[in-house]
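tool=predict chain=A
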Amino acid sequence: MINYARQDQDNSTAGPSEEHIAPAPRVSVQAFCDTVETAAAVQAASEDRRLDKAHLKIQMGGMAAAVEAYRVAPTPNVILLEADGRGDLLASLDQLASVCDAGTRVVVIGHINDVVLYRELVRRGVSDYVIAPLAPLDVVRAICNLFSVPEAKAVGRVIAIVGAKGGVGASTIAHNVAWAIARDLALDSVVADLDLAFGTAGLDYNQDPAQGIADAVFSPDRIDTAFVDRLLSKCTDHLSLLAAPATLERVYDFGADAFDAIFDTLRTTMPCIVLDVPHQWSGWTRRALVNADDILIVAAPDLANLRNTKNMYDMLKGARPNDRAPLYCLNQVGMPKRPEIGVGEFAKAIESQPVASIPFDPQTFGAAANNGQMIAEIAASHRATEMFLQIAQRLTGRGETKKPRSSLLSPLLAKLRSK
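tool=predict ok
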């Protein structure tokens, strides 16, 4: 018998915008396909961001080719086997068991929808049985689910927020949206300020921690759950901050995978990670955006922002074919004496409606920034407060939150408390 961990078959039909698939770890995967359609689906899946760390190799020949290959070679972490139904599947699996290393997991891609066959495959130790024809996301799901423990805590969702241009208020939006996720949705969250030289998250949350994200990125060998937890600064019961040093004592040049270990560690302990991505284009910023579960682009209503938003939107949509398309919002709308591109024209060019259009209000936003507070703290009834909650709901997939009913005595009680 092949020594594989049993996994329940995933019968979910949710689209990419409705489900969260955790990325696969660094594993080797070999696929043995019988049809070119399945081979094409596996090839497309290999380019998905969630299999970025996995090494996937595709061969033709199906079950017979797999048995022959592993007579003289060690087996990988995962084997994908397509069975076209022409031969004896169970007999072929028994042959594979005789040459298969213990601990290898097998996913069978079959053309017969038979629950009796599925149960027999599971009894023999097969990890999963997937019915052809397959979409690339089916392959991604089948591989990634092998390494998701059902009883474990859900892997955190990474949300990346970036500005289409400098000075559009992307960091302010990121910090207020994270606040809404933590306070209104009661979801434990962390804000990671990735602008190490000029980050403002510490100022906006009125925090001045002695340590932060720089201590992690410059000490990759020390990164683990306990180490990262020590670097977090507590803002509220549900919100923590991984602050940027915001100093110019050193330069912050990183490789493309410099932040991978930090993000992976945060995923294991936090349900929601909000990345405040600086407006720059480098290997690591592109990687952070492409590998995020959801993306929000913040833009001002002018021509340069329109061009940049279009470029970023198209690039990210193309790089993430199995994910929900990026969201974008307009900020600083209605600035006096500034010609603006209308929301309709913006939406027509991007081919998508903005998730919100936040009005220009320098007095409220300026007061919040100078006081180290969020908009909801100084102006709970401000239009932007409701918009931040709507953005938070869209990015997290959470439904409407139930607000407590206000009574006729609420205004009087509020005045009494203030006195």
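The first strand starts at residue 28 and ends at 33. The domain at 157-396 is CATH 3.40.50.300 (Rossmann fold).
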